[in-house]
Each structure stands twice: as structure tokens, then as C-alpha cells.
TrEMBL record:
Protein name: AA9 family lytic polysaccharide monooxygenase
Protein role: Lytic polysaccharide monooxygenase (LMPO) that depolymerizes crystalline and amorphous polysaccharides via the oxidation of scissile alpha- or beta-(1-4)-glycosidic bonds, yielding C1 and/or C4 oxidation products. Catalysis by LPMOs requires the reduction of the active-site copper from Cu(II) to Cu(I) by a reducing agent and H(2)O(2) or O(2) as a cosubstrate.
PANTHER family: ENDO-BETA-1,4-GLUCANASE D, PUTATIVE (AFU_ORTHOLOGUE AFUA_1G12560)-RELATED
Native source species: Alternaria alternata (Alternaria rot fungus)
Signal peptide: 1-18
Keyword Signal among record annotations: yes
Amino acid sequence: MSFKSILLATTIATQALAHGIIGKFITDGTPNPGFPTDYIYRIQNGNPVPDLAAWSTSATDRGYIEPASVNTPDIICHKDAVPGLLTAKVNAGGTVDFVWPDWPHNVASVLTYIAPCGGDCSNVDKEALKWIKIDEAGFENGTWAGQKLMDNDFTWSTKVPETIAPGNYVFRNEIINLHDAATQNVAQLYPQCMNIAIVSDGTDVPQGVPGTDLYTADEAGILFDAEGDAENYSPPGPPMYVPGATSVQTSPTLGFAYPTLPAAINSTIATNMPLTSIVPITNATATAIATVVPTTLATRTRSAAITTGTASFETVPLYGKCGGKSYSGSKTCVNGSVCRLYGKTYAQCVPK
């Protein structure tokens, strides 16, 4: 065998052992193919490939996105991702099973997001999608999510919330390999996307987060000593969707007609930051918070105005933003919740 052949064989074997993609996803028992890497070569050679609901990428090595690239479009659905032309279907309350053939890394977290397309997902702008986290798992009861996936025939199952509004969505299942992730830029992120229509009687349209704002390279769920501190691990990204604690999306890319909301409530979401300490804050101290970070799952419906002293405020709903740089809205949370400071950068109304 020539040196070139040996090198090629070694490279292929290494790629197969070191990386992973979704081979298929199953919606309510119906299998749907993923996007295999050999299709990339078919496309490059001008040969036809079947239409799929899975998104295509240019990752011929079944590789990952490095933490240094989490604020680039590649983190959304992998490198140079393009929407699938078909759309699978699942019922709200049903299950989507993501199959990762021969996934090799047990020290890993697993997350699932959805983003409404507001129409046909086959031509959606991936950078306009707003992602809602519906599933996450890290280290629980002594076992990493990566190990659970491997033990379950390399399959991760996510239940679709019953309360989510019907429509066409992009689903995003992601594994984050945390081996040696205590070192900067060593964690490996493997996002995979597919178009799935949700059949539902639900009405929730939660506020999502742009894909390029889901993570920061050095937040605790990505830059983490998994070998030495596993018990304290929390998956990265925005909070998980909580049924009933939703916010109405107002982005025109969604294709829905929602009322215009006050600027103080409908604030622009910018950059995600890690959650650190939590301490209560008051109206007087909330304005001292420095950097705006994303609010998710905050109810965007207008609340009744209340009067405190000589100033008039609107109550901030559960999970609503109640402080931040240049924030001029109310810091008074709805009954049963309190405005709390997360780290040194962001305040949100949370249950008492």
C-alpha cells in the first residue's frame, strides 16, 4: 500500500473515531435520514443527492465547531450549513430521536433547540432564526449525557413541549464534547439541524436567541474542568423553555402579526454571558448593572402600570428583564417574583 493510501486510510479512521454526525432522526416513530458526508462529494462532483429535511454542511470530516467560533454563523447548524428542502413532522407532546452512529465521547453534554421559521424552512435565513432551548443534560446522577446517549444505542430523545404553537421549525440537536475542556478552545461543539413541522394545539411562541448569541467561548458550560468538577456542571446557553412563561416574538422573520411592545420591555437581545452568583437587587441598584445580555422566556404581554412613590412603573413579568446598561424600564417584578442580579451584568425577574 502506498504512503498516500496509508495516510488516507488513517485519516478516515481517525475521523470516524473522533467525530460524529446525526445519521438519522426519528419523529414520532418515523425515520428521516441525516445528511451523510459523502453527499458533499456528490454535490461537488455535480451528482444529484436526495432531497432531505436535514440541513447540509461542508464538514466532510464529521468535525466540530471550536469555542472560538461560537459567535460566527457556523455555530448555528455547523459549517456552511444550508437548509434542507423537505420538512418532517412531529406532534406536540411527541418525541424526536436523534441518532448519532458510533458517537465516541462519553464526557459530553447534549442540548436541543427549536426555532420557528415563520413559513417554509427550506429558504430560511439561518442568522435570523431565534433559538429556544427545549432540552438539556449534562452530568446527572453520576453519568454524563454523552454516556447516556451511547448506552441508548447512540440515540438522544427529546420530547416536544405540548404548549408550543404549531408551525414549521428548525430543530437543532447538539453535543458538546468536554474532554480536556478546562483548557481554552478545547471543547468541541457538534450542532446538527433539520426541518420539522410541529402539529399542535398550543399557543406558546417563546422569545428565542440568535444562534450567534447562544454561547460565549469562555462560559462555564464550555470552558470547564469536566474531570475534576463534574458535579457542578451546568450546560451552556440560555435558560430552558418553561411552558406558560413565554414571550411573544416580534421579529418580522417569523411571519406572525404581533402587537408592537414598549421599547423598555421589547429590548434588543445582544450577547450571552455565563451565570455566576445570584443576589437580590432593588429599583435603586438595578440601574448599576453594566452589560445587556439576552433575556429568554420573558412574557412580552403588557402588564398593568403601578405607582411607586411619585414614579409610575409597569410590573415586569416572570423571567422579564429588570435591569441592565441604559435600562430605563421598571425594576418592579410581578407578584411572586423578585429582581435578581446574575453575575455582575444582568437582572431578571425570577420566582421567589
